[in-house]
Amino acid sequence: MVQSAVPGIVFVPLATLPAAPAAAANREGCEHLLAKPASPAARQVAASGWAVTAEVPLGRYRAVSFVGKLEPSTSGTCQLSDGNVAIYEGEQLRAVAYAGRAAQRSLGRAVALEGVGLRLWDGDILPGPLADLRLNGDGSLSIVALAAEERRCQGRAVIPNILGMPMDAARAALLGAGWRPVAGSNSTPGSREADLTRRGITEVDGCSGTGMGFCRFNYVGAAGRLGVITAGEADPPTVSDYDVQCNAG
Q: What is the C-alpha separation between 176 and 168, in angstroms, rounded?
């Protein structure tokens, strides 16, 4: 049984994958966003002409995300359209999730969430999270709203859902979750880093002066280190992603 509780995302049983649109064959400039199929399920998707973006184990299932159109843009980014996530059991397709016709965002990639399922990201030039996909205790699959927090490092690291937040609000949420800022070293007068430091966001590690205007902010916690990435020229900028390095043990 599959169901979606997220408006705009359709999740239906399906046994046969349709062929990809002709546009899926043009991948120039976006190859770095694609995954080399490693499983029979992903190879089936690729053989149907689709561009595979990820494959992730999910209990007895395997989720394969794929798109039908890729358009390169600035700073190594791409717009991914006509996206889907297929659920396979072995080599048998069981279900497919996709954005409905009225949806403003397309599915782009499935990413593993430690111990609880998958996070579905959109295919925008600057990707953002859409929903979570959960494997329930009875074996059914559900697409649900984004969780309020994510756990990493065998559950020892808790990251609040800061994606899409302005950096000052994200900082407050991280401090409340026990993350401590690591002071950056760039204090060049007039730089964006210096402006952020003056605002009290002292953990800024560096900003790009071109393209998407990315900035990085570093934190440390009991379970490891956290890097937060923002994008855009807003003041303060908005969180677009993060990464975690776990301590040993």
A: 13
Contact present, 219 and 228 (Cβ < 8 Å) = yes
Q: Identify the burial level of 147 via C-beta atoms within 10 angstroms of its C-beta, where 0-12 means exposed, 13-18 middle and 19 or more buried.
A: middle
Q: What is the pLDDT of residues 111-158, one digit of tens each?
A: 999 987 999 999 999 999 999 999 999 999 999 999 999 999 999 999
- Report H helices in the chain: 40-47, 167-176, 192-198
Nearest to 126 by CA among 241, 7, 5: 241
* pLDDT at res. 221: 96
User: Residue 102: exposed, middle, or buried by beta-carbon count in 10 A (0-12, 13-18, 19+)?
Assistant: exposed
- 8 Å CB contact between 238 and 128: no
CA distances from 223 to 82, 172, 179, 183, 244 (A): 38, 19, 10, 19, 9
Q: How far apart are CA 56 and CA 54, in angstroms?
A: 7
Q: How would you label 180-196 residue by residue, b for 16+ Cβ within 10 Å and e otherwise?
A: ebeebeeeeeeebbeeb
Report the pLDDT value the prediction gives residue 212, as an integer from 0 to 100. 84
Q: Where are the domains of the chain?
A: 2-147, 152-246
